[in-house]
Amino acid sequence: MPTARTPNHNVSLGAEEINCLVYNYLMDSGFEHAAFVLRAESPLGASPFAKAYVKRGLLVELLAKALLYTEVEAHWKDGAAFPVTCKAPFSLLKKHVCSSVAKQRPNGATGDAPPSRQDPPPVLNGVNGTHEAPKRKASQQQIPEDRSGKRARVDADLPPPQAKPPAATAKPAPIVVPAPAPAAAVVTVNGKEHLTQTPIPPKPTPPKQPVFRQLRGHQGVVYCSSWNLAEPRTFATGSQDGTIRIWDVPPHSDQPVTCLRTLKEDPAPAPADAVTTGEEPKHDIICLDFNRYGTLIAGGSFDHYLRVWKKDGTLGFSHKNHTAPIFNVKFSPSGLFLLTASLDGTAAIFDVRAKKLVREYQYHEGSCLDIDWFDEDTFVSCGSDHKINVFTRVSTVPFRIYRGHDEDVSQVKFCANRKLMASCSDDRTARVWSTRDFKSAASAESVAILRGHEDSVTSLNWIPTRDGKDQTIIATASFDDTARLWDAVTGNCLHVIRGHAHKCYTATFSPDGLYLSTGGGDSTVRITSVKTGKLLFQHKFERSEGAVYDVSWRRTPEGEIRMAACIDSTVALFDVLKLQLPPS
């Protein structure tokens, strides 16, 4: 929008100021999503008014002043007194009809009322379009007959007045409003600025910046993603099509994201005595994990195989120890061992260098759903038998068992300092456990029980360490369409994150712990303030009917923050800083 200027007044009005006023009005009115859409799609964030203080209700105050000016403009009649009897309202969108004028119309006449005979308005150049013909004639009789000049010439051009009955009132001539003059432009000639009435050409509308980059290539639903710990611009995705794709994200958002390589092993031939069902075997990649050096990536598959790939895309080794789909894989802190969890009820440890199975832990009655390392020698597993088992690498018998959940335990995770452990379950709760006597055989009691969800709690995450300080906040996602933020020590629910129209599958924190992202079965990804619990951003993938199963974050050395959301057979990569999220 160009800046409008008048030749006689130092007045300017620009799109940036208007956007700033509208943005603050929307925020004051509670339309936060609309406000942030405006901020994202306009150059407001880069304008000098982005951080300007705007008092509450300023836009309404300015519009009220505009109405007062409209009143003056409507009632001003060349210096005549204002009609104090006007009771007609003024509106920003409707034309004002003065009630005092309507009352002065005699005998049902229409149009503007004529001025009073006792106080005739001044005549300009002998022509007054608002006068009755008899009044114009009276004013002409006051002019000497021998007077020459502009006044006489104008009067001579007028038609002779027509006599009218005294009781009749002439309809006034319509008032012609001149067209507004074109906006003035400043032109520099020989070093001097001059005003010209040449219309200012409008500024070209900048192209709308995409909210995210969509990465295509997978031929099936993308279930999981994992960022390389050593190379922050590299991440991997696993899909229903049985492939792992490694993506390279350039430092600048205007550069394309490239797929470095696609990892896929030809499926092993079925045994000769295998029973055929007529269905093709499934090879979905369900889980991924990079080692700490970023040189290896492990993937667990629906076809029961564990596969470990090298950085150059060659297969390090594959192993089919499990007899059911592998639900999770995790490298040990040193990267020397690899831990797996399978629906066959077992956990297993593999020696990465030797490329072989070290030990199998079959102690769950049903499925083993998740695992996590406590340190290099100790790990936990949880399952459909409602228990959390604690093992060492050298023993297949758990030396400690955590009990308390009444249904399947879906996930278990340690906080950053390993002092607390959290678990979530289909019993609609999450629990926090102390690890103070973790390696003893003493009975374990939960520190806090997190109650409030109305359906299965399917995933949880701990908030990252911030500024070297440990934090005790947990995020949970549930099939009740919500996510929740909890104080892990007191068990208090800090915020309930509503808005998803279908099951909430994932809730993950940003690297700085300021924001929480959620993805659900409604094809929507949402970002919420951890501090206030308010929605800051959401995007609905309109052309999708799938779910957002996984969202992962990564901060680059340059300070960029990337967020990858798995939706259908694609990955939506958001440059979070460009979303212009407010400080939390």
Automatic annotation (TrEMBL):
User: Care to name a GO molecular-function term for this sequence?
Assistant: transcription corepressor activity
Stated name of the protein: WD40 repeat-like protein
* Listed CDD domains: WD40
* Entry GO terms, CC: histone deacetylase complex
Q: Which stretches does the entry tag as region Disordered?
A: 104-174
InterPro entries named in the record: Ebi-like, LisH, WD40/YVTN_repeat-like_dom_sf, WD40_PAC1, WD40_repeat_dom_sf, WD40_rpt
Q: Where in the cell is it found?
A: Nucleus
WD repeat segments: 215-249, 319-360, 402-443, 450-496, 497-538
Per the UniProt record, the source organism is Exidia glandulosa HHB12029
Cite the source lineage.
Answer: Eukaryota, Fungi, Dikarya, Basidiomycota, Agaricomycotina
The alphabetized UniProt keywords are: Nucleus, Repeat, WD repeat
Compositional bias of kind Basic and acidic residues:
144-156
Question: Bias category Low complexity: which stretches?
Answer: 165-174
Task: State any GO BP term from the record.
Answer: regulation of transcription by RNA polymerase II
